[in-house]
Write a structure and sequence with these properties.
By secondary structure, the protein is an alpha/beta fold. It contains 13 helices and 12 strands. A 12-stranded mixed β-sheet has the order 7-8-9-6-5-4-3-2-1-10-11-12. Strand 11 and strand 12 form a beta hairpin. The structure holds S-adenosylmethionine (SAM) and iron/sulfur cluster (SF4).
Length: 346
């Protein structure tokens, strides 16, 4: 990584910040650092997934160079995701290297989304690298249900990871996917548990990404229904608070904590979209819900200078679409998009 640390981002000088055709500045980059995972969540992956050959996956150095190019062009927030980011070998080399942009002030936030399974091992190092807060995905507090949802995961291990992260001083937001008939009776308990431990909670609607071998209609639970039910039990006060993401937040008066709703299906949040996503093969997706993508690996590998890379990024951002059009209904039982969430990283 040392050579990368010193690498000058030639070609960045004189180039403007990234602004799409609808006037939205691109300040948030999500990077999937691996398509692999130690879980097989039912809404995310099929049990027998095939993963990418190593040669197609960007090296840690290439990931660093790509992230740094976006930072040079105005990205202020970087989220590492996956697959499971913490199962990528050498992940801390990348985190430590990227942390130089925090120290230089070019980056406001470096963060990650994790299933928590490896947090006991990495929490302290992550905090030491300057990461302040992380998202941990957890859909249930019931060990059997957890095993059924994740297929391979251990709830106890994730609890251990959350303890370690809090002990290290990391702020945690819990993300839970709302699953019809699976965890829909658990939200009050999840709220009380998360808020009782000083963690915000965000509920997410299932999105129709990837072939997973089960019907989406079986899983889909509109958050409008969840919210109405929760409002019978709790006082929910609308908040203006935004984290730079698509969640709408309420304050739960009884717990004092924040509850977010990410509702791509029932509430289109595209108008304020400030983000793009990169897969671990260097494919840039301008919208989570559209197929259009740009290959950044080719210009990255074609030259040690970054001119080709910047040109490819500019060309791609000029094509960022206005929004997505996810639909789950009886006529659209097939996934709207063939790729899995573990490819684009959620
Ligand atoms: C793909 S995971 C990657 C990071 C990490 N492995 C984790 O689980 O947090 C990122 C987020 O996407 C969510 N997710 C996966 N598939 C989804 C789907 N089809 N619809 C909605 N959310 C999904 C997960 O629950 C998780 O919160
Ligand atoms: S949601 Fe995260 S933990 Fe679950 S299978 Fe997908 S990548 Fe792995």
């Amino acid at each position: 990584m040392d050579s990368v640390q010193g690498l000058e981002l030639d070609g960045a000088a004189g180039r403007r910040e990234l602004v799409d055709p609808f006037g939205r500045a691109i300040t948030y980059l999500r990077v999937s650092v691996t398509d692999r995972c130690d879980f097989r969540c039912v809404y995310c992956m099929a049990e027998n997934m095939s993963f990418l050959p190593k040669a197609e996956v960007l090296t840690l150095e290439e990931l660093d160079r790509l992230c740094s190019a976006f930072i040079a062009r105005g990205v202020r927030k970087l989220r590492l995701t996956g697959g499971e980011p913490l199962v990528r070998r050498g992940i801390m080399t990348l985190v430590n290297s990227l942390s130089r942009h925090l120290r230089s002030g070019q980056l406001d936030e470096l963060t990650l989304t994790t299933n928590g399974s490896q947090l006991s091992k990495y929490a302290e190092d992550i905090k030491a690298a300057g990461v302040q807060r992380i998202n941990v995905s957890l859909d249930t507090l019931d060990a059997d249900k957890f095993r059924a949802i994740t297929r391979w995961g251990s709830l106890e291990q994730v609890f251990g990871g959350i303890d370690a992260a809090q002990a290290a001083g990391l702020k945690i937001k819990i993300n839970a996917v709302a699953l019809k008939g699976v965890n829909e009776d658990e939200f009050p308990r999840l709220i009380e548990w998360a808020h009782g431990r000083g963690m915000d909670l965000t509920l997410i609607e299932v999105m129709p990404l990837g072939e997973i071998g089960e019907g989406r209609l079986d899983q889909y639970l509109p958050l409008s229904i969840v919210r109405a039910r929760l409002a019978e039990r709790f006082s929910l006060e609308d908040l203006d608070y935004r984290t730079g993401g698509p969640a709408r937040y309420v304050r739960v008066a009884e717990t004092g904590g924040k509850l977010g709703f990410i509702t791509p299906m029932t509430h289109n949040f595209c108008e304020s979209c400030n983000r793009v996503r990169i897969t671990c093969t260097g494919t840039l997706y301008m919208c989570l819900g559209q197929e259009d993508a740009a290959d950044l690996r080719k210009p990255l590998r074609a030259s040690e200078a970054n001119n080709l890379l910047f040109a490819a990024i500019d060309e791609a951002i000029a094509r960022k679409p206005k929004g997505h059009d996810f639909i789950i209904d009886r006529r659209h039982q097939r996934p709207a998009l063939a790729r899995h969430m573990s490819v684009t990283g959620g």
